[in-house]
Amino acid sequence: MGLARPVSSVEIDGYGDAAKVGPMSDNPDLDLTTLMRSRAGTAFILAMGGEIVEASAGKVLMRLPYSRKLIGNPDTGVLHGGAITAMLDHACGMAVGSGLGVIITEAQARQTTSYATLDLRVDYMKAARPNADVWVAGECVKITRQIVFARARAYQESVDEPVAMATGTFITTETRPGS
């Protein structure tokens, strides 16, 4: 599946309209591929077997393959809620990262800007069905000067029938050279 690069629908406070469509570089597909490779490579997500299926500006689709090592209840085979929460957090973070990449067009600024989860609320709607993969769709909703808002849905058959939903708040920081 190829990487799509639609115009971002992220609401951005304090930035002109040009920021909503500005490319991360002259090669947006390469930027997204690099982002996917760097963020998909966290040891925790790799250990769980999670993968990024699609990414675009401010959006991501991830998949958590069903695995016996992730079962929370051995009697029913239901996945552990912590694995789903981790994927929701990661999907929100990926969406934030790709959303920020749209508005931070200077290469130096991109290298010195980082972000972290400030708050994550997860609402579980139902148990994930055993022996079925979990899909997680994340999107960056709003970017302000220091705070970024994101949301994600974990589902199996339809995004309209979520297993869990998350709302996340992220803080951005600037790192200083040499720190």
Structural commentary:
The chain has about 180 residues and is an alpha+beta fold. The protein has a single domain (about 10-175), classed as Roll (Thiol Ester Dehydrase, Chain A), CATH 3.10.129.10. The chain contains five helices and nine strands, in the order E-H-H-H-E-E-E-E-H-H-E-E-E-E. Strands 1, 2, 3, 6, 7, 8 and 9 form a seven-stranded mixed beta sheet that branches. Helix 2 (about 30-40) runs antiparallel to helix 4. The longest helix has 23 residues, at about 80-105. It is elongated and about 50 Å long.
Structural category: alpha+beta
Taken in chain order, the helices and strands follow as EHHHEEEEHHEEEE
CATH superfamily: Hotdog Thioesterase
| Beta-strand fraction estimate | 35-45%
Summarize the structure.
The protein is an alpha+beta fold. It has helices spanning 17-21, 28-40, 43-48, 81-103, 107-112, and strands at residues 11-12, 51-56, 59-64, 71-73, 78-79, 113-124, 134-143, 147-155, 162-174. It has a single domain, classed as Roll (Thiol Ester Dehydrase, Chain A).
